[in-house]
Every structure is written in structure tokens, then in C-alpha cells.
Amino acid sequence: MSSTSLNRRDFARLFAYGGSAALMAHPAIASLRPRPLSAADLGPAPDWERVRDQFLMPRDLAVLNAANLCPTPQPTIRSVTDHTERMDRAPVPTLRRQMTGVKETTRTLLGEYLRVPGDDILVTRNTSESNNFVSNGLDLGPGDEVLIYAENHPSNNRAWKAKGERFGYTVVEVEPVNPHPGPDYYLEAFARAITPRTRVLSFTHLTNTMGDLFPARELCALARERGILSMVDGAQSFGLLDVDLSEIRPDFYSGSGHKWPCGPKEVGVLYVSPAAQEQFHASIYSAYTGQSGLSRTHEGMGQRDEPAIQGFGDQLRFLQEIGRAEIEARSRELASALIEGLQSIDGTTLWTSPDPNLRVAVVSFQPGNLEPGRVLAALEEDGVVAATRGGERPGIRFSPHYYNTMADIDRAVSSIGRYMRTGL
What is the CATH number of the domain that holds 296? Predict the structure, then answer.
């Protein structure tokens, strides 16, 4: 067997005798591992080609689906894998105690990333769990109202309604308008919908449907002025926008690691403001709580996947090396190029606002009379990963991120243009 090549027989033999450790030690595999990204690689501005090389996707696959699931860069994958193997090789109490402590490191990093104290952060599994912690943890009953945006994710929409039916409170919805009517419209719509019975205002920072950006800081200020709690679903903004919670000042903010942060699966975040903590009850009681702040009472969730939590912290460092503002600017740049390309194709209807002040990097559109499901299948054959949208404004959703290239955008636009000219 050559030291620099690995055929199928070699692969099978190595895996059978030594598992993944033997495989990863082989030069043919080890040589594929890029070294971790560092600030020195980026220079005065990020080298986006170098960033792209940190991901496993082949160059002929354009992954434009960050609003659903992002790929994870190889250094973070290695972190999760290495720590998992370490735990499984030596599941002894000393190591388990050490690994339990990684939650505190990641909690601190999350606080720094979102610009709030780590003591106010809970390390959850994802946005859905975080959102349900909020709707489970507040004392609401007959006579109370919760005000939501109608196109919130089910975990921030259906969850409120189901619990309202159970506990007797009312859920009131502000309906979407397309095209995006601007931030003032939604500020006025929510202000009009607030009544003396309203206890919570809950909205999506950036919608996963049309990609509409909401005025989070102003809506949270409105809630404070009216003496009600504010809940911001950050599933589509955490890891994409340069979020500063010290400026937005929500009572609750949720996010997932597996979307725009490009982190491990089943690691998320919930921020709870000090002002809201006395009204916020724990949803789960078990062993292995956190060791600081709110986590000591609200994070007793039993055995966790500490290697994934460790990897999430490493991924936050990866994002910090690139720069939060740089990631947002790059994603906006890619989305603008995508929108410009789609607008040049006759027959497409763009649901997402082309105004960069009203959107970020979620782009939804209808490709003429083509059936979205068939378009999605054709895109996958062409090496483009996207999503479909249903409802009143059906079609295709592209969501590019900082790991994409302009060649990815060109491939997607070219494919849509060809389908529109020739059909499917």
C-alpha cells in the first residue's frame, strides 16, 4: 500500500482493523485535512477562498441552504470527533468532570459573541428548545395575551397557541405584508395590536419565509415602554448578522448552532435578560446543571453531548477569527448578486425585498409557472442545494452564506435561467 494513496480495499481493511483512528492517521486522509484558520491567513480582509477550503463540500456543489442547515468547517468537525473519541476511550469520572466544564467555556464565548454577560446565557439544543423554554417558563393564564408575528416558526407560533389553549390565554397575530412594507409599518402594527392584557411580544428577527428583516431594537423598546416582555427568535440572525444584544435589549433571544453559525448539531442558545429572570421558570429539572448564573437553576438537562458543546465553542472562535461584521457583509454581498441575477430572468417573481435595509441573505422567489418541487430536484442534479416554500407565496428559497463563492451564485442563477427558457 502506497503511503500517499488509498484504494477501496485499503479503505475497508483499515476501517475494519483500526476504525476511524487508523483511517485518519493514514497520509492519504490526513493530507486532506486543512490546518485551522487563523487571523494570519486572512490578512487585512478575509480570504474567502481560504475560508471556503475549510469546508468539506466539493467545489462543484453550491450549498445555498443556510436558513435550514449549514455545513460545519473541518477544524470544528475534528474538535467534536476528537473529544468524542477521547470520552469513549476513557469514560472515567475525572474526564467526565472535565468535559462537563466545557459548558462554562462555551457559555462565556456565547456571551462575548452576543455582547451580553455569560451568566445570562443558557446552552440549549436549538432554537426550538429555547423558544419552548420561554413559552413553558412564563406564568400566563386567562385574561392574558401573547402577541406574535403570523409567520413565526412553529416553535414560536404553534407552541404559543397550543399552550394558550391549555392554559386559557389568547394569542394575537400580526399578519405579514409582501413586499416588505418597511420597519415603520410593523412598529405601528404591533403598537396597535398591544392591549392592556398583552404580556409578551414575540417575533422573528429575520423570517425564514420571505427573508424579511424586522426592527428588533425598536420592537423591544416598544415592549419595554408598554411593560411587556420581548422574545426575539434569532434562528435566522444568529451567526449571520453582527448581533449586539446589549443594543437590541430583548428579554429573550434564541438561536441554533446548526444554521448560520455553522456549528455542531443540537447545540443552541437562549439569552434571558436579568429583568425577565424572576418571571422565568425552569422547564426541566435534572442533574448536571450549569455552574454559573441562570444555568444553575435552568440548565439541569441531564447528560449532554459535551463534545458538541466544546465544538460549538471552537466554532465561535472560528467565526470571531473571520469577523462578525465581515461575515454579515459577505453574506449580504452574495445575496445581492443572487437577487440581481434572478431579477434579470424574465418571468421570475421575487418575494424577498431587493432593498438591503429590509433583508439580509434569505432570498425567496417563484420561477414562473414551474412547480417548486421539480425545480428543487433539478437544482440538486445541477449541484445546487436550496429549499422550497409553500403557502401564499410559494417557490424556491436560496440562502447563501460566507462559505459560498460567486461561482456558486452564477451556477444557481444559470440553472434557474435555463429552466425558465426550456422548462423541466
Answer: 3.40.640.10
